[in-house]
Amino acid sequence: MSLSTTDVEKVARLARLAMTPAEIETARSQLSGIFGLIEEMQAVDTKGIEPMSHAQDVAQRLREDKVTETNQREAFQAIAPQVEGGLYLVPQVIE
Amino acid sequence: MIESSLSQMGAALRAKKISSVELTQLYLDRISQLNPELNAYITTRPEASLAQARAADARIAAGTAEALTGIPFGQKDIFCAKDWLTTCGSKMLHNFVSPYDAHVISQFNDAGAVNLGKTNMDEFAMGSSNETSHYGSVKNPWDKARVPGGSSGGTASAIAARLCAAATGTDTGGSIRQPAALCGISGLKPTYGVVSRYGMIAFASSLDQAGPMGRSAEDLALMLNAMAGFDERDSTSLQRDKEDYARDLNKPLNGLRIGIPKEFFASGLGSDVAKAVEAAIAEYKKLGAVIVDISLPSTRLSIPVYYVLAPAEASSNLSRFDGVRYGYRAPEYTDLADMYEKSRAQGFGAEVQRRIMIGTYVLSHGYYDAYYLQAQKIRRLIAQDFVEAYKHCDVIMGPTSPSTAFKLGEKGDDPVQMYLSDIYTIAVNLAGLPGMSIPCGFGDNDMPVGLQIIGNYFDEARMLNVAHQYQLATDWHSRAPQGI
User: Fold this and answer.
1) B198 Cβ under 8 Å from any chain A Cβ
2) Within a domain: residue A93?
3) What is the CATH number of domain B6-254?
4) Residue A94 Cα, gap to closest chain B Cα (Å)
5) Which is the catalytic residue, given B20, B128, B133, B175?
6) Is the ipTM of this complex over 0.90?
7) What is the span of the domain harbouring residue A30?
């Protein structure tokens, strides 16, 4: 399978990865090779087969709706790139 | 002392023949001497390790020591450890000093074990050679021009070079078993759900499983006893009774039915690897086992299925790395989207970006059914192959990897070639089964060969028994690389 440059640009945007045109081209060629490998799946007849999303056939556990975590804001914000007054700072989003 | 088993080390510590401080210092000295070349550890904190050792000695003196108290272990850098730099092999986490302990780390801490350091790994556990680490390639102690395997390559190299008593690994598609095979050590990936994933940095959550790596099956059993168990903080942790994984080590193997899948010996398998694995199977016959020919017809499909499902889960898991709450943030950007895109492009290496791209593509609108859903359906066919096979056998055996350790840089530019080397290990993760690798001889260039033992669900105690009996009859597992 061969991907187009537009395909790869779209995927890079969705994945939030800044890529130069040269990087897009390298990615296009490598991804095309990998999808060549993946295409083998398409020949398999899977009619009536239930998708398997998980290794163990168990239901999700439920827990009581009560607070179990303590506030560790200071410990967590100590490792953040940029904080101020207990808030995480990001570039301005709303004008 | 460094050639002793974990139980011998524990006994020596409790008999006060050696202190934990002395044992820890011995390993720290070995690390200072050998790690600059092997690059098996990313981070060591000698003072923190020695403080744990002193606490262990106090516990031994107080008579409250457990099996692992005072023994120094390496911890794969995928496990968050409080106050330890935890990088997951990535520039993205180059400054991430974890504020909390992973479940696995707290299990070792509770047992009184010493953390010697964080072992190197492929970035976010994506790789089969340890060459994708941001912190440089790890060398194989058997030949420093060769890779140790991956992604738990630092752990495997450190164990083979006796830079720790044993260490932890994680296995999403073979990341415990393949490096164990390539470095001539033993490693076990438990049944999915047996060891909690809490605090273990996520790659592909439906496949990721932590496990022990060491010099013998007996050592792995002791470690698994400490690592396994229900943890409510992992929503896929299984609620099961605590078991002693060492309980069956000494059972004889008379009548054990070993399934040999013909697909594991087809074209693509190196003749040197085939020869060593066949010799191991012959040894098992001598030990009383019966050989059963089986078929796992969907084996070849496990690679395409894995390279859809694992990247899909990874693209979702790794979306949390946005340069806002922790980790790397690009120094310059124009707005929020630009900050995300630059932080991620600069913080992730090439292989991680490739897998995020694959995952994003297969999950995107219009492709979901053709790729993700189709892969999940074939995943069930692969799992059913094993269910069918276990009607006729107790364990399955074959090679762990199609070749012995390859040269550094040999497969660097061709991701497809690298992916194909995971052919024998991936299906086990897709099915959620336990699998292990033990040394079974040497192939071309005197590099170690691994024998893979695949068990049925929750059959770890039997697999360890099967491996231990072989290790009583052979000495491959106790060989050490030259100069070690």
Assistant:
1) no
2) no
3) 3.90.1300.10
4) 10
5) B175
6) yes
7) 5-43
